[in-house]
Amino acid sequence: MPELPDVEVYVACLERRVVGQELTRIRVLRPFVLRSVTPSLDAAEGTTVRAVRRLGKRIVLALAGGLFLVIHLMIAGRLRWRDRGAPVPRKLGLAAFDFPTGTLLLTEAGSIKRASLHLVEGEAALGAHDRGGIDVLAADRAAFAEALTRENHTVKRSLTDPRLFSGIGNAYSDEILHAARLSPLKLTSRMTDDEIARLHEATQATLRAWVERLRREAGDRFPEKVTAFHPAMAVHGRYRKPCPACGSPVQRIVYASNESNYCAACQTGGRLLADRSLSRLLGRDWPRTLEELEDRRG
For 220-230, how does the pLDDT look when each residue is reduced to its tens digit (9 = 90+)? Predict the structure, then answer.
């Protein structure tokens, strides 16, 4: 799923292309993508784009007349910039937004379609799409600590809870926790002031660094290969590959359709974390440390 850095780059690229431009036509290929009824999409056609915003992981086109187009890409949704009037791809295409400068395509891979499009009127209606999480790039340490400790969860779960923090998902939470040298299963109620300060600093530094990296990679082009897996990432998607900080193999916890990637040496004092199903299956045979794991593989 595109997260804060990816969405920030989308927003910046769209600003250069559509702000001040007329949205001449909206073409919807898959009706299910439209999740709102009032106002009608027809009301948006012929209006001018005033601004482009990020709302959590959502992209918002602010239109003249107090209208807002809200695009949520979910896991596999992506945006493509094409020449004006480009056809909507039959296999992956969901919708197209035509401007004098070009056409913005909304696509989604996979058989399960979750991406959504809403048209709402007024700031209050737009606010209904805000999950309430704080803007982590603007939050000071006190605001960050308050959000983090509001509920007692694992730090991984709290970072990815949109009610607490805006725009952080599975991929960048792994990178943040590695930078902060914290276990993904650390309970927020047991975190020290030093650990919270370290996490706050790592969150802002990691996200800002990736926003800048992705902007440089995109340059003047529209981002075409938005992915949760980057070769330059420290731990996310790098199971069994060497940690860039210490060289130990990256570990993972698999749960449902997600996974956490971490370095045991850097983040858990060498202790291996086990997901519930695997722990029940292996019981006492579950290796507790990196050394035990390497012995069994050897």
Answer: 999 988 999 99
